[in-house]
Amino acid sequence: MLLTVGMIIVFVSCIGGFAVAGGNPVSLIHAGEIMIICGIGLGILIVSSPKTVLLTLKSDIIKAFKGGISDQGKFIDLLVMLYELFMLGRRKGTPALDEHVSDPNNSSIFSKYPSFLNDKGLVEFLCNSLRPIVDGRCKPGEIGGILKSELSSREAEASRSIKAIEMISDALPGVGIVAAVLGIINTMSNLEDPESVGYKVAAALSGTFLGIFLAYGIGVPLGRLVSLNQGQEMLYYRIVERSVSGFATGLSPIMAVEIGRRSLDKVMQPTADDLEEKCKDAAKGG
Q1: pTM: predicted TM-score of the whole model, two decimal places
Q2: So what's the pLDDT on residue 22?
Q3: Exposed e or buried b for every residue in 1-37, given b needs 16+ CB within 10 A?
Q4: Range 8-16, long-range pairs (CB < 8 A, 24+ positions)
Q5: How many Å apart are CA 205 and CA 39, to the nearest integer?
Q6: If 0-12 CB within 10 Å is exposed, 13-18 middle and 19+ buried, where does residue 178 land?
Q7: Measured between alpha carbons, how far is 157 from 53 in angstroms, rounded to an integer?
Q8: Is 26 left (phi over 0), alpha (psi -120 to 50) or beta?
Q9: Under a CB-based contact definition with an 8 Å cutoff, are residues 256 and 239 in contact?
Q10: 8 Å CB contact between 244 and 147
Q11: What pLDDT sits at residue 64?
């Protein structure tokens, strides 16, 4: 929602200011220049990005228009769910977690937290994090390094869409110059008609304007927003990584999730007392 509002402000300020200064907004619209800039820009994006990056980019942009993914309720659900899992592992031993890790969709614990279960990537990460502990394939002190390595890989993969936006933002001003040069070539090739010279020069300059406007008015801020959203999304994974590592090394369930709570931004972070109360309520319910 805020992204849409921001874009409207950018467009209204730019076009409105041009009109107030005596310009005609219609004079900024030239189909040829728009086709050159948008077509070349799209082509550059497709040439430089594999299909997986394009799909991720599409998903990230949709999330940006929806207002991001930050949800305090989902963070709290994740922490409380981890507490339930750790309590089960503490009471009955880590092998008792196998039924939840092996079949998360039918887990009696996971099913109570649909916000978690609907996030397939997060479910996969948690199950992969717990599986070595359940199977006894690694020492408790080793799991932290394994999870950090996987998390770094996920962060690098997610950042590819940001780099794609940054790349196209850097390219658009140059593409605008290309459109302007083509417009000037078109103008110089037809000087016999003096009345059309002014129109064609204006069209050429509108190409430069459009390239710079799209780059710095849309591309750069959109890339920044996508980057912030991805950082927020990675907090879910960070909670799992730190909480599971803490539990594996012998911390009590409540202290393990406390480490996860402290990984959150202050605006999303529940108080320690609130989290402990919710965890106790969940334990009673279980």
Answers
A1: 0.80
A2: 86
A3: eebeeeeeeeeeeeeeeeeeeeeeeeebebebbeebb
A4: 10/217, 10/218, 11/217, 14/213, 14/217
A5: 18
A6: middle
A7: 9
A8: alpha
A9: no
A10: yes
A11: 86
Rounded Cα gap, residues 103 and 198, in angstroms: 70
Q: What pLDDT was estimated at residue 157?
A: 87
Residue type, 169: S
Q: Greatest CA span in the chain, whole angstroms? A: 91
The first and second tokens of residue 261, run together, are 């709570």
Mutual angle of helices 2-20 and 220-248, in 10-degree steps: 160
**Coil, strand, or helix at residue 96?**
helix
Query: So what's the pLDDT on residue 69?
Result: 61
Nearest to 74, CA basis, from 270, 280, 272, 274 = 270
Average pLDDT per block of 10 residues along the chain, 286 residues long: 85 90 85 90 91 90 77 86 90 87 89 88 90 80 85 88 92 92 84 75 88 92 90 89 90 90 84 86 70
